[in-house]
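can u do me a favor
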């Protein structure tokens, strides 16, 4: 070794979810499906959302799904267990909107940490119940985009206006992530990203949390392409989106939500060619259809058939469902992908896989 050569430092080992990289080498992992779609099946009214604790709360809170981890934990537990029984390897916590920024819509900012803690407890109990040595289950702390955007104006007449700052988002994400970590999640899922700057705030908060705690936990990153332009809402193509966030060294990178699987395919194919990490895909059950039971068109056989084609083409390492998908969808997806080999890293990255 020459005098100036710097020995390559070994990659730091994950302190949780350490089995995931080896599992991803062996098979396609299955993510769960929609939480909101399943909650709708229970037809909960305002009183059910409130429970005893919030019966006198001063404003309507129906629709605040994260609150159900506190007021109706049995509903969330049942949904988790249905997805695990269907074959999910990775279970998302019921925390998509459990940040101060999102909870401000209901005046429940101060409950954000508690929502995350209770949600992890429910997912952890369910995963521990279903885990076996051959099929371990993992709790993914779900981190949603918030209803606010750091890089797009809420006022069409004032392009420079913003209704949230980067620092406000970072602080809200840090609070959420710390609660998720303290309660026992195995990995983080920063999902349904429509604004890359929001995602950067979340990833900055996670980096800070790892520094503060000494933990290093796998991160899944998932964006959402909002229309046929192939861009996320803040304007990036999927390739630009990947290059903006790859510095976070995510365990998986992919797309979810907005489009059904058929329309999502070209963008997943593009990521599969360029990502030096594992690729995830969990689409909606087609496009919205208010006449169907789930609010979406695709039945389990259709969604699973599309994802099987993705898998057979060597495009994915993690597959699951987003809006409109149910345990029936996840069961069909798990069955369809059980014998399909996971995507190999692109040839330019083979040596790092």
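np, heres the sequence
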């Amino acid at each position: 070794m020459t005098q100036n050569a710097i020995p390559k430092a070994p990659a730091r080992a994950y302190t949780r979810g350490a089995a995931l990289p080896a599992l991803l080498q062996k098979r396609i992992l299955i993510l769960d499906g929609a939480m909101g779609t399943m909650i709708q099946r229970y037809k909960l009214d305002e009183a059910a959302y409130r429970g005893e604790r919030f019966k006198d709360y001063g404003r309507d809170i129906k629709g605040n799904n994260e609150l159900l981890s506190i007021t109706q934990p049995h509903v969330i537990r049942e949904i988790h267990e249905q997805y695990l029984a269907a074959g999910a390897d990775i279970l998302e916590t019921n925390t998509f909107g459990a940040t101060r920024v999102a909870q401000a819509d209901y005046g429940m900012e101060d409950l954000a940490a508690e929502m995350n803690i209770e949600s992890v407890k429910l997912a952890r109990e369910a995963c521990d119940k279903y885990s076996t040595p051959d099929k371990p289950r993992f709790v993914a702390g779900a981190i949603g985009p918030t209803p606010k955007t750091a890089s797009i104006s809420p006022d069409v007449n004032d392009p420079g206006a913003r209704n949230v700052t980067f620092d406000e988002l970072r602080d809200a994400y840090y609070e959420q992530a710390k609660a998720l970590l303290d309660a026992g999640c195995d990995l983080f899922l920063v999902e349904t990203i429509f604004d890359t700057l929001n995602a950067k705030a979340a990833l900055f908060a996670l980096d800070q949390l790892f520094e503060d705690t000494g933990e290093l936990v796998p991160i899944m990153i998932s964006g959402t392409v909002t229309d046929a332009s192939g861009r996320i809402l803040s304007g990036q193509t999927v390739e630009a989106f990947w290059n903006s966030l790859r510095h976070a060294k995510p365990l998986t990178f992919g797309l979810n939500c907005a489009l059904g699987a058929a329309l999502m395919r070209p963008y997943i194919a593009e990521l599969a060619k360029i990502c030096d990490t594992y690729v995830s895909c969990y689409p909606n059950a087609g496009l919205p259809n208010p006449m169907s039971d789930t609010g979406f068109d695709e039945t389990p056989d259709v969604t699973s058939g599309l994802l099987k084609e993705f898998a057979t083409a060597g495009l994915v390492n993690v597959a699951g469902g987003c809006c409109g998908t149910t345990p029936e969808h996840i069961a069909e997806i798990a069955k369809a992908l059980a014998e399909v080999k996971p995507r190999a890293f692109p040839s330019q990255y083979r040596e790092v896989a």
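The CA atoms of residues 86 and 272 lie 26 Å apart. hope that helps!!
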